[in-house]
Amino acid sequence: MGHDGGLSVPGLTYLLDLARLQGTGAEECFWVRFPGTPDPETLIHVAGESGVFWSHSGDETRQPFCDFPEIADISIKQASRDSQPVENRVVTITKTDNRILEVEFPSLREALSFVSLLDGYYRLTADAHHYFCKEVAPPRLLEDLENRCHGPIRTSTATCSQSAWRRRWGWTTSAA
């Protein structure tokens, strides 16, 4: 039961909150720069209802990049200056049409925060059993994928059922 006396379905509360936020203009923004350019002048906007946009500092015109289901891949790599590694991280988002957006974040923490946000929205809108970056994937998702569980079944349920089935049929798990 949920805190309001109704049934509680995992994720339903989050989806209801997301639906309530639609139309309110709720978004996260990140100051970034395009690799090879001077100090941060670009703002990346991420909103549940409209996807990923970018704009230059002081410019109200937003350039759309993609909606979450259009994302094909996300990668993070360490930036470098004069062939020396620096703290900055470059995040590359590749769309299904092979267009890319490459932006540089001032730190790993900010890059991971951005990727985590995109990863979460992708799971909500496109594929609940997919992740782009292992560093930000929920541990339960990684465990379920490792144990080949999908859908509403949990790893603990699957392993318990498998153990009971093995005991019933006299199978052991020893290697040959």
From TrEMBL:
Organism in which the protein naturally occurs: Alligator mississippiensis
Q: Name one GO biological process term.
A: cell differentiation
Name the record gives this protein: FERM domain-containing protein
Q: From what superkingdom does this record's organism come?
A: Eukaryota
The record, for PROSITE patterns, names: FERM_3 (PS50057)
Q: Which InterPro entries does UniProt cross-reference here?
A: FERM_domain, JAK, JAK1-3/TYK2_PHL_dom, PH-like_dom_sf
**Which Gene3D superfamilies does the entry link to?**
Pleckstrin-homology domain (PH domain)/Phosphotyrosine-binding domain (PTB) (2.30.29.30)
- Gene Ontology cellular-component terms listed: cytosol
Q: Please give the Pfam families that the UniProt record associates with this protein.
A: Jak1_Phl
Q: Where are the transmembrane segments?
A: none
Q: Where is the FERM domain?
A: 1-129
For molecular function, the Gene Ontology terms on record are:
growth hormone receptor binding; non-membrane spanning protein tyrosine kinase activity
